[in-house]
Amino acid sequence: MIANRNRPWTEEEERRLRALKAAGRSAVSISAALKRSAGAVEGRLSVIRARERMAKKADEVGSRMHYPGCKGA
Q: Which of 3, 24, 37, 69 has its CA at a distance of 20 to 30 angstroms from the CA of residue 46?
């Protein structure tokens, strides 16, 4: 798995990562399927969750800004 060290995640790898996680696979199992370390898999899942949280907050702020009298963010 050293060959993948510091190699950026591709869209296809990230799609497979999401699908495998949604199917209930463990980080170790996913790491074998993607030829990445378990730590890399867990780290990428953290990045994905953070992006999703940020997008959700942006959506919430955006929706509040459409109402009259709302000061927004």
A: 3
How many residues are there in the chain? Answer: 73
Q: How many CA atoms lie within 13 A of 24 on its CB side?
A: 0
Percent helix, strand and coil across the chain, each to the nearest 5: 70, 0, 30
pTM above 0.90, yes or no: no
User: What residue ranges do the domains of the chain occupy?
Assistant: 2-64
The Cα–Cα gap between 18 and 28 comes to 14
Residue 1 Cα to chain centre, angstroms: 21
Position 61 confidence tier, pLDDT thresholds 50, 70, 90 = confident
pLDDT exceeding 90 applies to what percent of the chain?
64
